[in-house]
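Lab manual, section 2.4: Encoding a predicted structure.

Procedure: take the sequence of the chain (489 residues), apply the prediction step described in section 2.3, and record the output as structure tokens. A sample record is shown.
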Amino acid sequence: MNSFDQLIAFERETQALGQIAGRLGWDQETMMPRGAASQRGEEMAAIEGVLHARRSDPRVAEWLETAAAPDEVGAAQLRNIRRAYERAVKVPGTLASRIARVTSEAQGKWAQARADEDVASFLPVLSEIVALKRQEGQALAGDGNLYDAMVEDYEQGTTADEIAKIFDAMRPELVALRARVLERPQPAGLTGHFDETKQMAMARKIAEAFGYDMNHGRLDKAVHPFSSGSGLDVRITTRTNAADPFNCLYSTIHEVGHAAYEQNIDRAYLLTALGSGVSMGVHESQSRIYENQLGRSRAFTGWLFAEMTEVFGDIGLPDANAFYAAVNCVQNGYIRTESDELQYNLHIMLRFDLERALMLGDLDVENLEAAWNDRFFADFGYQVDKPSNGCLQDVHWSVGLFGYFPTYALGNVYAGCLNEALRQQVPDLDAQLAIGDTTAATTWLRDNLQTFGGLRDPRATIAHATGQEPDHAPLMRYLDAKFSAIYAL
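Recorded output:
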């Protein structure tokens, strides 16, 4: 084989091992016995050591030096492998393994601290994670910005200053719209007991309605819903609450957006550097457009109202209009994952600013809870009542995902762009959604974005799909129009 073929064959094995590591993570969140956490930490550290050694193998540099790309796809393969290699060689293998071990064990400590409402018990391991991630960030950044190097892991080609500029433009508009909405009477909500077995059955039906292929996936429960895997094995999780079926159903739609992206990537890219979503921001654009612009639309909620009344009987709402208002209700709340579209980005902006300060040394870990509570009060106007509703609510920092949070809001920005383009090109979309048919929307997203995987960089991926450079204006137009109509502003 020539250098290019040898490199691609080596990369396939590395990608396959990465999938195994991902499966260990999936098992840890869904099936693993609680008492196995320490052993799983050793297992994760061992496989991360193997992966790091492969990603920084000197032969990769040799192949990259002499490999000739046969076409555009090959050039993209080389670009992505080179980027991963250049990052991998900057991080010592011992540090990569240490981070894998500590963060694997930290998940259990975070879960226990969250259950006990005990921030102090989590701070020692969080301090260790922050110190380790700072070491990693500095190794990656060199003379550059440490936090930018972390963002690069999730949204390549984007800096923290660029993100901050977008957020600073959006924040006052979001705060003002939120204030106007909360002055209006609140719509009625669901009432009754919603059998959790029936919720899961409906979640599976909805997942398939949005194009999720159960032959190459499965739906399970987890404390924190997530999607895992790519190609031929893409798994999702959700959670149930007998008093709140929306939590289950919309978490499922959200994760289906992630999973559909992975399932729909061109099979020719399977187990290659192009065979997964190009960035977390683009990934989040898929989960958010599935969940919000499609799943929470007036058209689709009309179909969902009929489905829910058939399964659960009287749900306390008289008609589809009342149901639509309930699905999109804006009200005070603490939890990011349960937040409405209007307030969600404010939750992300809070986390972005705090984690950036942690990484740059502007905020000490022991002061995190106070800083979180102060910022939350400033943005939302009421006090955090307990740690599980505050700085302990998310798993991300316990697993070392610094630089990840801002991609959630970038995903919303991208989804706003995609939604405008989709509706221009599929003018009868609402008529199809009204009968529970998402095919036109999911096919458009597959053909214009998902199938390309990592072929293009994030912003180019969105520009290719929409014909325009990403901008936050479409999202703000969408939010203003939607909530002005619902709340008669």
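Check your result against the sample. The radius of gyration is 22 Å.
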